[in-house]
């Protein structure tokens, strides 16, 4: 004999899994590929021009200019911490721990602002202007990275507001993951910039 | 638990605005309808229409350049600066204002239907990309008109050129991103990547290459703009900008714009051969290999900092290797025709002609890589660009003939289509081939001067070829205008007995079990084993 239980909780159809592959995630990936190529071209040009100058036994940086490693290190450490914090946000939302996710997302934006502030201060100390080739290259590369970080903060901020509005959960965290991917690549690109411009002067 | 409760994750994921679906949604009328549209078909038509306007502009400039080269030892119509500026706009317009945009437009209309998607991914971004292209493209032309652009004498005009070209490049990246995401993320049930129609696959690979290479170009344009804006001129004096852009118009990058040509030819041939395409995996692989080998961003310093790149082993090998996938694809094309019962139609002619052009282009590209021939920076570069962009133009016009139910909703006249295809085939060959020989005779690409015997005659042949191409374009435009002026067609939405999903009455509702679902269902109805 078959037992039939008439119960709404059992009759509820299973939740549909989120659509895969995720559109926002894929779009972010393609956007990051384009951005990464923009930096690859500029950094390649920077390295090539510097090699030419050094090969000719000339100084790459203008007389009296030194690029201090400390501001670069501070910016790097700040961004690396922000990357960890951003991943904490992903972890928290994956576990439906919304308060910690909000905290981590807010901290990421704050650390991004600190990075922009630090680099802006560094610009006043660096002693190079945009009116010389080295300065133009450095300001273009780091300036574009500041713009990328600013866009990343907007992205993370938007996803934070969406999360605050009730979107995203352990089952569907696409927006947060996409923002995290963007942020991690932002940090990764700065690691390359830090090594190219601040370390191997 | 009450049945009215809905789990947050149970709601279907919506990637489109309510009015952003295909043609089914009721659009707003008038100007608001055009400005606010997120429908992929409408956006695609805007791309196509605008790019055809730029084709006419670019073509007229090409005609002026051809007439100037009839007497190649002196400047007769233009002065030296105007010649260089006109040549520059001819190239920039051909690549960034015509070739990529027209393919984007066709793909924007066709690809969502081919993969059974309700709409394009990020329809608002796709619309924004078009408007940015329209405004940026218009400003590019204006910058030349005010004596800006490369070789321009007006510094602010040069600044405007760099900024507006940057805007166009961002628009093209954004549009490519929407297309690539659509193919990867919005395929219908059962449609694995291996079952994607060849055109959609070619658009995915092309968009990927475009995003990467145009991304690099955007970075360069930012640098050049700042350099020029602050009048430093360490990188971009007015006469140097052209060299920074040259890699985008020479091999291998120039072939990247023609990747969808293969996809178009691959989708057309089995339909007109009235058979199932065999070895479609080979065709997919050939398109992928062609796309990979056409990625030319790595040569971006070849015209400025590192001219030796054209002699390097990697460059030479890549230039020869890229012939292989095109040959493989030509084999696939011929094999499908031979196995089937071919019927003649203008789309098949366009497909064959565009494939021939591309083959000619990659062969000349391989010859150019032989350093001892000294073809770099000669008119051979122009020849290769004309072959590749000619292939794009032929395929694009052919695509409008083939996919007219989706692009136009009214048919183009077959007879005029056949004439257009034949004239384009003859015209582009006559336009491009003499430039290779003239290149071997040392005629330089960017300027006029003393030339060797025979160059003048070659230039005359090339000029006549250009006139034939112009005639073909005029016939196509007349055909298009007649089509748009006619009443909507009543013959149905599948005039060719298509095999792929875009010809289904409702592509979104279909679950796919092969790359040719319509052919399968027809075989099943006839009782033929697949």
Description:
The complex is a heterodimer of chains A (201) and B (530). By secondary structure, chain A is an all-alpha fold. Chain A has six helices and no strands. In chain A, helix 2 (23-55) runs parallel beside helix 6 and helix 4 (98-125) packs antiparallel against helix 5. Mean pLDDT of chain A is 90; it is low at 1-10. Chain B has 530 residues and is mostly helical. In chain B, helix 12 packs antiparallel against helix 13 (346-368) and helix 14 (379-402) runs antiparallel to helix 16 (414-440). The model of chain B is unreliable at 1-23 (pLDDT under 50). At the A-B interface, helix 1, helix 2 and helix 5 of A face helix 5 and helix 6 of B.
Task: Throw out a few tags for this protein.
heterodimer; A: 201 residues; mainly alpha; elongated; disordered N terminus; B: 530 residues
Any chance you could write out the topology, listing elements then pairs?
The complex is a heterodimer of chains A (201) and B (530).
Chain A: H1 8-11, H2 23-55, H3 69-94, H4 98-125, H5 133-164, H6 174-199
Helix pairs in contact in A: 2-5, 2-6, 3-4, 3-6, 4-5, 5-6
Chain B: H1 30-35, H2 40-68, H3 80-114, H4 123-145, H5 155-185, H6 198-229, H7 241-245, H8 253-256, H9 259-273, H10 280-294, H11 313-321, H12 323-339, H13 346-368, H14 379-402, H15 404-407, H16 414-440, H17 455-485, H18 517-526
Tally of individual helices of chain B: 18
Mean pLDDT of chain A: 90
Q: Report the major sheet of chain A.
A: none
How far the N terminus sits from the C terminus of chain A, by CA atoms, comes to: 83 Å
Gross morphology of chain A is elongated
Radius of gyration of chain B: 23 Å
Radius of gyration of chain A: 23 Å
Largest sheet of chain B: none
Of all chain pairs, the largest interface belongs to:
A-B, 47 and 46 residues
